[in-house]
Amino acid sequence: MSSSSPALKPDVALSLTLSPSPTKPARIEAINKSEERGLRLIQLLLKCANHTSSGNLHRADACLPHISPLASVTGDSMQRLAAQFAYALASRLVKRWPGLYKALTNRSLQLSNHEMDPSWAVFSHAFPYLRFAYAIIAQTMVRAMSAERAREPPQLKITCVNGNKVVLEKLGLRLVKEAEGLDIPFQFNPVNVSLKELTIDMLKVRSGEALAFVSVLNLHVLLAEDDRVDAHFGPNKGNKVKDCKQMGQFLAMVRSMSPKLFFLVEQEADHNFRSFSGQVC
């Protein structure tokens, strides 16, 4: 006699429990906490900036431990902004000791270009303002320069000023390759200095050249006199706009070259307010 019985199957009970979605009061409470945290961060940042501006470094330093637990580079918009402001304020305090500041801001310890490129691509995609600015610059430059040397083959020379030698080397290779592909006579003039150190001789301007000067989010550094930061930690002398010798000298140099075009892209910010707290606010 043969018997066939069905194969025994283990008795498995699968239980899936979903966490309940937050109730409306819970969401409101979370929003309220976020708003309270944001207001608290603003108060602490302004307090820290005021102490920094008045020269009370110990009280400014005492504010930072209260900011750090509330700020976060991965939190909401206010937390992310506060994290960057806290870092900037801490850097401002450390600049009182130039040797310590330079050691902490060593370029070799910062993000590499390989790490920065993806971040820059994401930023450009999310905020197209700079792409729009570059498009306007390119279109205007082509129109303005089209009448130059109409009877001669076009010649292009690009001078790039940057304190990072690696950036200049990579940019030069890319530009030369692009010029070769377009069969355009091209010359790249890398100047490995900061804008503060730039002189007219470094630009190697030749007589008869049609010049176009382009500055994108760079010129404001001439308003921040980092080498004389101690002088700006004095008592608050009001929020009057102060003259900046470095900026005046630089603009006078550019004007002396009689550029055909001058492009300037900058954020709206009061970098030359006399008091540091005025710049922050």
What is the share of helical residues? 40-55%
Distance between the termini: 95 Å
Measured by DSSP, the beta-strand proportion falls in: 5-15%
User: What's the oligomerization state?
Assistant: single chain
Radius of gyration: 28 Å
What characterizes the major β-sheet?
Answer: 2 strands, parallel
Physical arrangement of strands within the biggest beta sheet: 1-2
Backbone shape: elongated
Low-confidence stretches: 1-10, 12-19, 226-239
Order of helices and strands: HHHHHHEHEEHEH
Q: Could you report the average pLDDT, rounded to the nearest whole number?
A: 78
The assigned structural class equals mainly alpha
Number of strands: 4
Treating each run of at least 4 consecutive H or I residues as one helix, how many helices? Answer: 9
Total domain count: 4
Structure, described:
- The chain is mainly α and 281 residues long.
- It has 9 helices and 4 strands; from the N terminus they run H-H-H-H-H-H-E-H-E-E-H-E-H.
- The longest helix is centred in the first third of the chain and has 31 residues, at 24-54.
- It is elongated and about 70 Å long.
Salient structural properties:
single chain; 281 residues; mainly alpha; 4 domains; two-stranded parallel sheet; 9 helices; 47% helix; nucleus; transcription
